[in-house]
Amino acid sequence: MKRITIKDLAKHLLLSTSTISRALVNDKNIHPDTKKKILDAAEKLGYKPNPTALNLKYGQSKNIGFVVPEMITPFSSTVLRGIQNILYPLGYRIIIMQSDENPLIERKNLLLLEEFNVDGIIINLCHETYNHDVYQQIIDRGIPLVFFDRIPDKSLDAPKVMVNDNIKASLMIEHLIDTGRKKIVHIMGPSTIRNATERAMGYKRILTKHGIFDPDLLIKTEGASFEHGRIAAQQLLSKNIEFDSIFAFTDTLAIGAMNYLLEQGIQIPEEVAIASFSGTELATIVHPQLTSVEQPLVQMGEVAAGLILEKIKDNTISNKTIVMDAALIYRASTRG
Amino acid sequence: MKRITIKDLAKHLLLSTSTISRALVNDKNIHPDTKKKILDAAEKLGYKPNPTALNLKYGQSKNIGFVVPEMITPFSSTVLRGIQNILYPLGYRIIIMQSDENPLIERKNLLLLEEFNVDGIIINLCHETYNHDVYQQIIDRGIPLVFFDRIPDKSLDAPKVMVNDNIKASLMIEHLIDTGRKKIVHIMGPSTIRNATERAMGYKRILTKHGIFDPDLLIKTEGASFEHGRIAAQQLLSKNIEFDSIFAFTDTLAIGAMNYLLEQGIQIPEEVAIASFSGTELATIVHPQLTSVEQPLVQMGEVAAGLILEKIKDNTISNKTIVMDAALIYRASTRG
DNA sequence: CTGAAAGCGCTAACAA
DNA sequence: TTGTTAGCGCTTTCAG
Question: Which Pfam families match (chains A, B) (predicted)?
Answer without folding.
Answer: LacI (PF00356), Peripla_BP_1 (PF00532)
